[in-house]
Amino acid sequence: MRYDLILTGGGMAGLSFLYQLRQAGLTGLRVLILDREEKRSNDRTWCYWETGTGPFEAIVYRSWDQVRVHGGPEKPLHLPLRGYRYKMVRGIDFYRFMDRFIREDPMTERRVAEMRAIRDGGEEVEVETDQGTFKALQVMDSTWRPPMETPGRHHLLQHFFGKVIVTPAPVFDPGWPDLMHFGIPQENQCRFMYILPLAPDRALVEFTVFSESLLDRPEYEQVLDGYVRGQLGQTGWEVEETEFGVIPMTDEPIREKISDRVMRIGTAGGYTNPATGFTFARTQKRIAELVRHFRTTGQWDAPRASWQWRFGLYAAVMLNVLEQKRAPAPELFYDLYRKNPIDRVFRFLDGESSFGEEVRLMQSMAIRPFLLAGADVLRRRIF
Ligand SMILES: Cc1cc2nc3c(=O)[nH]c(=O)nc-3n(C[C@H](O)[C@H](O)[C@H](O)COP(=O)(O)OP(=O)(O)OC[C@H]3O[C@@H](n4cnc5c(N)ncnc54)[C@H](O)[C@@H]3O)c2cc1C
């Protein structure tokens, strides 16, 4: 059988693609989803900010209209989100929601299969797997990952280990997630705690690092447990769940369109913000554009706004500042949130700010590290 569309990778991007396709009324396309896993565990938590509601509002587990940022031991910044909400979707809720959705969709088939190759033959695409070869008019691939080896580009990793813990005492304020808490030893890297409070005695507590290589697994746990013991003053807490993740932070050129009938989406399509690792909301937005474009033109490759290139350049400069340690990361991020209204920061990170806002943002940051970084980015790209 030939499918209209094969989604190689049925994770966040693949499943979001199917959902948005159907929500847009494109219910007649025959779709096959291929993934090596069945997606039965709560393997990740997605957080994102948005104004209004997005496609997965029904499964938002928690949301907040304020966040905190701690630059170090000094008092934290309390930041009302000015029209945005910071939302949390649990992986398991997303996968179950999509399981139910797919069960009721007669035009979608899902298979557990290891994808081996994608071949665009011009008239159709062949996807070779350990369960056989499948054919389609179009493939959206979310299995690919950037090689992180292009010379002259930045290749940082955002890596984190988190636990949902239940503490003996009520030490969390459910109204205030901690976006970045730099009050831990930096060890010459960028290290912070990220805390999503779920109840006074329950939270996802995550130790996050931006660096070039991963730590040994026990070190993540030591730092995390040390924080709960030392700064929250707790002993004997329970662990409900753990999560470990690595997100590429890179300015490597990533192509979305691979051939006439093959595109990459999600992390594979370059939808991750290189400087923050946030991918969920950007994926929803880009998929909405692709689906809208297909509905009106019958073509998948919706053009991107040409002025978007400048956000890639800003991200590269930020990566350079972090990679070359041109300024202490706690000061950098603390300044960003202290000197700018948070809606300006969010619009900037979403690639939706005006040029005037970007100038004001730049003026608020230490000028020297960014000038040096900008010069280095240009030097690397030219030579
Ligand atoms: C633990 C964790 C937490 C995160 N938290 C956030 C967050 O809070 N906010 C945010 O914006 N982003 C977050 N991210 C980043 C990003 O949103 C996620 O990585 C997201 O899942 C990316 O979606 P994706 O579809 O590109 O990749 P995935 O969701 O990883 O989907 C890719 C799929 O491809 C399948 N696959 C891979 N290779 C093959 C193969 N050869 N054959 C068959 N199947 C294959 C995998 O099994 C997987 O299901 C997080 C990432 C991780 C790892």
Main beta sheet strand tally, sense and closure: 8 strands, mixed
- The CATH architecture name of the largest domain reads 3-Layer(bba) Sandwich
* Order of secondary-structure elements: EHEEEEEEHEEEEEEEEHEEEHHHHHH
Strand content: 25-35%
Mean pLDDT: 96
Small molecules in complex: flavin-adenine dinucleotide
Rg, rounded, reads: 21 Å
Number of helices: 9
Number of domains: 3
CATH class of the largest domain: Alpha Beta
Helix content: 25-40%
Low-pLDDT runs of 5+ residues are: none
Number of strands: 18
The CA-CA distance between the termini, in Å, is 50 Å
What does this structure look like?
This protein is of the alpha/beta class and 383 residues long. It has three domains: 2-66 and 83-146 and 254-304, FAD/NAD(P)-binding domain (3-Layer(bba) Sandwich); 155-250, D-Amino Acid Oxidase, subunit A, domain 2 (D-Amino Acid Oxidase, Chain A, domain 2, 2-Layer Sandwich); 307-382. The protein contains nine helices and 18 strands. The strands form three sheets. Strands 1, 2, 8, 9, 10, 11, 17 and 18 form an eight-stranded mixed β-sheet that branches. It has a seven-stranded mixed β-sheet with strand order 6-5-13-14-15-12-16, sandwiched between helices. Strands 3-7-4 form a three-stranded antiparallel β-sheet. Strand 5 (66-70) and strand 6 form a beta hairpin. Helix 5 crosses helix 9. It starts with a strand and ends with a helix. Bound molecules: flavin-adenine dinucleotide. Flavin-adenine dinucleotide is lined by residues 9-14, 34-37, 44-48, 114-115, 142-143, 243, 245, 247, 266-268, 278-280. Flavin-adenine dinucleotide binds at residues 9-14, 34-37, 44-48, 114-115, 142-143, 243, 245, 247, 266-268, 278-280.
